[in-house]
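R.M. (postdoc): so does anyone remember the format we settled on? I'll just put the structure tokens first.
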């Protein structure tokens, strides 16, 4: 019996050793994860045991001191700039290494290496979009610039010096969970991250969906559903602004109206969040209580842990800049220095177009262009797949007007859609030569308006609305980037790629880029709305959000003697500008006598609502469900037989139809014998809304924060490291624009008084380690709409009580 038990326990022990250390059965060897010497326990931080640290690196030219304040924000004091970037790289790696590498791998289509075949389609999509190709071109351009090359080399060296210190025990937790180790940082990885931001902000394209829509609907229906101009438009640059005569003359081909693909059907397309946006504005001293400008910015991006942003101050004899930096890139992205402040919102224009390519034969080695067959260029991509053989992907590249463009979709790859085996090449500004770091370096050093303009003009992609304010009183905003000079409708649909007539005919010249400088109205602002009205010469595109910009402009125009507290209230406003416009008209067209007792209670709740989307209220939930059901009720018959993925009508289309067209052709449901009116649609939608609300009440309640579902999620979507059910006010069409995993990722307000006063917060924490108290400590204050005073530390404040740690880097 003893011998039997001995062998039984020996077998069990052996099996446990195999299972706990197997990467075939588990994402990472569980035995290693649970090891007290090397596993996850080593990632817990002892906050009481913090000590000052000293380092020595031969790459440094001089001593660098870093002072960590009580929020773990580093204040870097260096005798020269490249030493500061070296230390910034070290700090980014120390607190955010896994995030940096994961984002670079995601951009480069390398996630299959970590999680296996499940990510292969996604990796192929990113590779075939040309992300690595674009990053390589950007890296080469950055390395031609001696200032940016030195900046990147110093930053990269700092990252790699930290990586060298890592042991199996000190690896960031996610490496242990996913079972891999970091590789050396490179400038290419920095470029990949910056191109990922271009993907997130400047790669949304509706060409395929709009092609389906144009093929399906009549011209009358199409023009009503997808108008090129909205009546409610309050553009970034006021309508009365004069523009220079155009110097590029984009002309549409004579046969443009006849190009209409009837057999193009798309089922699904990977897209960045269409809501990626932001608000920024600057008010001049004539409108503030202090007489100094105030600049505000809140970019709306993914709400992630670790956060997209890392707060930092960099001080050298030539530079003193504070703000939010990107882990993975040197410098400050949004912030301020001793002379000025700067911020960004997304330009939102269409800079990614698709062209149908005609290959000579199945080999795809030649393609027809301008009457002759041209040689195809090829890029062979090797994708490492965990647990499987490497996947080899051959991607054709074609020359579209002097720019090599990848054939993203072809017979070998359709992604998650049916493209009818068409060959679709993608022309995207992110593929062009660019040096993204030049704009940030320039803004970090800017002293005045001229410096700001010079920096802004170096921005190529993603195109942004760059706001500026200076202590001399100047305020400005430029809609900056490489914008294709398009003819009306160009790029809205898939275009023929067989000749040059449908190609971009140049970029809008810098002297014709819309901008404002010290406008008479006393403020500049942008919230991703259309930049200009119909008086501008070039085609801007069709779909832009309208209502945040409208609300901001109305508020700022009516305000005087503005204070920082006023700007905090504006920046965190939960007022839904769209709801305020449409809900009264909806309720006006609803007869309460036709409602049940329960429905009447919902009606009364909506009638009393002040249009503020407050976390604990039920009215915002009822309104948003009603808006969704009304849209479905009005358009469902028109879209019933449309292709599976067709562009849905713009939100502004539905709003302006309800407000201005009492006899819209879309009100009638063609599936019934009677002719429906707006009143019929509203009643039907309200009754549907009531049923949905009843179900929601039983399931989770009707509190707005439950329905809006704001959450801050771990980049690898690990639930234990994420925060759900954040009780935040706001909504999609509020200035405080949040929903799901999207929202204000960094709120900043800067008053350009003689001694700068600044406030800011982001929904995360300085540390990327889930075992640290600094991992997500800002989230509750962010949700409560609180701000932290941004402490621009002076050299004589080194003994300040706010400091919790000092790090000294010696040569």
């Amino acid at each position: 019996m003893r011998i039997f038990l001995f062998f039984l326990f020996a077998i069990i022990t052996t099996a446990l050793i195999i299972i706990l250390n197997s990467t075939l059965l588990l994402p990472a060897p569980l035995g290693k994860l649970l090891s007290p010497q090397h596993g996850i326990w080593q990632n817990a931080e002892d906050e009481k045991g913090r000590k000052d640290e000293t380092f020595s690196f031969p790459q440094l030219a001089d001593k660098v001191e870093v002072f960590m304040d009580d929020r773990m924000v580093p204040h870097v004091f260096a005798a020269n700039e490249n030493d500061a970037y070296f230390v910034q790289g070290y700090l980014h790696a120390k607190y955010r290494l896994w995030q940096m590498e994961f984002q670079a791998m995601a951009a480069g289509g390398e996630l299959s290496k970590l999680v296996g075949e499940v990510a292969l389609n996604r990796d192929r999509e990113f590779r075939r979009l040309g992300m690595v190709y674009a990053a390589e071109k950007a890296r080469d351009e950055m390395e031609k610039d001696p200032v940016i090359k030195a900046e990147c080399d110093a930053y990269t060296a700092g990252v790699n010096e930290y990586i060298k210190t890592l042991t199996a025990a000190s690896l960031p937790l996610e490496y242990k969970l996913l079972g891999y180790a970091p590789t050396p940082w490179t400038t290419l990885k920095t470029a990949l991250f910056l191109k990922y931001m271009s993907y997130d902000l400047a790669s949304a394209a509706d060409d395929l969906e709009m092609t389906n829509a144009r093929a399906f609907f009549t011209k009358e229906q199409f023009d009503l559903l997808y108008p090129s101009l909205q009546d409610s438009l309050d553009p970034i640059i006021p309508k009365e602004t004069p523009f220079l005569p155009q110097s590029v003359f984009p002309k549409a081909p004579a046969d443009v109206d006849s190009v209409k693909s009837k057999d193009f059907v798309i089922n699904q397309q990977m897209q960045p969040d269409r809501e990626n946006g932001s608000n920024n504005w600057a008010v001049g001293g004539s409108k503030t209580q202090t007489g100094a400008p105030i600049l505000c910015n809140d970019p709306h991006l993914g709400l992630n842990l670790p956060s997209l942003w890392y707060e930092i101050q960099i001080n050298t004899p030539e530079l003193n800049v504070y703000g939010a930096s990107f882990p993975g890139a040197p410098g400050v992205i949004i912030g301020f220095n001793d002379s000025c402040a700067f911020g960004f919102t997304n330009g939102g224009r269409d800079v990614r177009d698709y062209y149908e390519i005609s290959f000579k034969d199945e080999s795809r080695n030649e393609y027809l262009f301008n009457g002759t067959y041209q040689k195809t260029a090829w890029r062979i991509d090797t994708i490492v797949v965990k647990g499987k053989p490497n996947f080899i992907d051959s991607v054709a590249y074609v020359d579209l007007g002097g720019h090599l463009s990848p054939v993203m979709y072809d017979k070998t790859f359709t992604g998650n859609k049916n493209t009818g085996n068409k060959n679709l090449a993608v022309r995207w500004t992110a593929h062009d030569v660019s040096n993204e770091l030049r704009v940030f370096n320039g803004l970090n050093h800017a002293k005045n308006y001229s410096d700001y303009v010079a920096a802004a003009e170096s921005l190529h992609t993603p195109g942004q609305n760059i706001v500026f304010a200076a202590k001399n009183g100047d305020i400005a905003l430029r809609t900056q980037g490489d914008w294709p000079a398009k003819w009306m409708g160009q790029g809205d649909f898939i275009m023929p790629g067989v000749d040059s007539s449908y190609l971009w005919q140049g970029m809008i010249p810098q002297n014709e880029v819309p901008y404002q400088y010290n406008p008479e109205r006393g403020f500049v602002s942008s919230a991703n709305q259309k930049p200009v009205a119909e008086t501008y010469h070039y085609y801007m595109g069709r779909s832009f959000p309208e209502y945040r910009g409208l609300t901001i402009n109305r508020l700022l125009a009516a305000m005087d003697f503005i204070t920082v507290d006023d700007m905090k209230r504006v920046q965190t406003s939960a007022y839904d500008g769209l709801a305020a416009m449409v809900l009264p008209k909806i309720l006006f067209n609803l007869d309460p006598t036709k409602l049940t007792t329960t429905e009447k209670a919902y009606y009364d709740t909506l009638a009393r609502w002040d249009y503020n989307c407050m976390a604990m209220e039920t009215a915002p939930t009822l309104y948003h469900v009603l808006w969704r059901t009304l849209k479905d009720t009005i358009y469902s018959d028109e879209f019933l037989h449309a292709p599976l993925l067709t562009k849905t009508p713009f939100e502004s289309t539905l709003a302006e139809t309800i407000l201005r067209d009492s006899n819209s052709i879309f009100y009638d449901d063609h599936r019934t014998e009677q002719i429906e009116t707006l009143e019929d649609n509203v009643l039907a939608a309200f009754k549907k809304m009531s049923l949905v609300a009843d179900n929601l009440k039983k399931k989770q309640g009707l509190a707005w924060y439950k329905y809006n579902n704001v959450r801050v999620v771990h980049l690898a979507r690990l639930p234990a490291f994420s925060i759900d059910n954040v009780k935040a006010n706001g909504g999609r069409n509020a200035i405080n624009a949040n929903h799901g995993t999207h929202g204000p990722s960094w709120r900043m307000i800067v008053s350009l008084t003689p001694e700068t006063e600044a406030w800011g917060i982001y929904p995360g924490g300085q540390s990327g380690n889930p075992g640290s108290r600094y991992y997500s400590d800002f989230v509750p204050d962010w949700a409560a709409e609180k701000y932290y005073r941004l402490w621009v530390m002076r050299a004589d404040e080194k003994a300040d009580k706010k400091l919790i740690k000092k790090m000294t880097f010696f040569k």
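R.M.: ...and that's the designed sequence above, right after the tokens. Also worth knowing: The chain has 22 helices and 29 strands. The first helix runs from residue 2 to 20.
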